[in-house]
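Hi,

I'm pasting everything inline rather than attaching a file, because the server keeps stripping attachments. The sequence lines come first, and each chain or strand is labelled.
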Amino acid sequence: MSRRPDPVQVVKQRRDEALRALVDGVPYIRFLGIHFDRRGDELTGILPYDDMLIGNPTLPALHGGVTAAFLEVTSVITLRWATQWDAVEAGEDVATDRMPKTIDFTVDYLRSGLPRDAYARARITRSGRRYASVHVEGWQDNRQRPFAQATGHFVMPQHG
Amino acid sequence: MIDADPDPTTPDDSTAERRQKIAAQFIAMIPHARALGMTVTEVGAGTATVSMPYDDRLIGDPKTGVIAGGAVSALMDTCCGAAVIAHPTQALGTATIDLRIDYMRPATPGQGITARATCYHVTRSVAFVRATAHDDDAGNPVACATGAFTLERPRPKS
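And the predicted assembly:
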């Protein structure tokens, strides 16, 4: 006989707390104002517009470095979130886990970043014991018209 | 994306003088570069050096205190853009087309990061740029970057 599943509120609270612990602990994510929207295990990074994110005041346009940083943060958090998912579901403490380390990150700037909120979603294209590859897309008003995309390679933290 | 100067100077300005002017105006014009405390320390013909001080707000891994890769990206992008603007073609503006960053080692916590970029080739509309970044251990880079940037040339005089 299988165990009765936890009530939906308990499950949601456990997942949201794990996500908050993961994101809130990183000063740079707070500095940029990035937060994450969760649907089941799917994460969407949200970068609310702020004047200090501008790189070209005459257009105006988001700084290319901000775009790169937003896509990289979304990639790293998505990767860590995916690798700790089973442990979170099992109710284990994942607070001591280390962050994946970026090996390289390549950003493709498709159009200039507008002075408004940006969103990003990352897809793990390969997740091995030691290395992982991630593809990430960022968009603003229109999901079908990404303003940037990137691929990155990461070294996964080794346990024990 | 960066504009060199909203009111471009005449081409007969001495190039060294123009570069110095860029160095002075560059950071003040970019809100995000200012937010990260960046300063241009050297500008040459197609080269630029930009420094960013260590700041607790930029930590990417709270367990180690190492600066986030994203902050290094912002420094690299700014520095590469500055090198394009400093190129003798006297570009009016530039925008990043693509930028690859290799992270060789974590920057030492507590130390600032300095990036040096070289715009090593330009075509009619594209600038190719390389950059390296280091902390206090100058001989041991923390990151390398390669990128392609748009090149907005000044209009030829009729």
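DSSP finds three helices and ten strands in chain B.

If the labels don't parse on your end, tell me and I'll reformat.
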